[in-house]
Amino acid sequence: MPAHSAQALPVAALPGPFPLNPAAMALVLIDMQRDFLEPGGFGESLGNDVGMLRRTIEPLRAVLAATRSLGLPVLHTREGHLPDLSDCPPSKLNRGAPSRRIGDPGPNGRILIRGEYGHDIIDELAPVAGEPVIDKPGKGAFYGTDFGEVLAVAGVTQLVVTGVTTEVCVHTTVREANDRGFDCLVLSDCVGSYFPEFQQAGLAMISAQGGIFGWTASSADYLAALAPLGSRAAVAR
Ligand code: TIU
Questions:
Q1: What residues line ligand 1, using a CB cutoff of 6 Å?
Q2: pLDDT above 90 as % of the chain
Q3: Structure pTM?
Q4: How many whole angstroms from 181 Cα to the centroid of ligand 1?
């Protein structure tokens, strides 16, 4: 017996209410990896202050816990490359004048290489059994991955998007998803940038022009919309 109906739950959002459908949505955590959020990784090697991203962790923890407690789908992504770098184009390898290049040894292992400690997701948001982890070689979650197929099999048409960084991997993924027909709701306090001006502009660009790429809302408004479901049982899909 369905635990919950699949009626839309309106989330207070920009540019207007987002019709969250528990039977068609998935929460996506983009690249919440040590390489971006902790010292010694890829983000810092590009000259960034990783502390700028860490304010996303606590709100995202609450969103993750509530979403999991309802049995709603959660997917994680990780940006990174094969140990032989065969999936890393020279343009990416050479760009940015980093202090350490992709594949170089660092305190958390080789920079942005799959299987290394720094490539993995931070402990606070570690995936649990059953949550797909999509390893991607690019900034977008669809390019060079089976993300689209995984979502199709799960019947997902709405993405609640979180993670880092707002103007790079979050934006690329939202744009890829938008062109593929997904409705994206980006949680403003659960996405982070190393640059305050890009955080602000990145969010504004998503909801501008009547929602040219999607919607934005706070995590509090997402959680408030889920509240009528309670946490008693998994949502029937
Ligand atoms: N540099 C930067 O802001 N971001 C990335 O390189 N990757 C992601 O956003 N995950």
A1: 31, 36, 46, 79, 139, 164-165, 168-169, 194
A2: 91
A3: 0.95
A4: 24
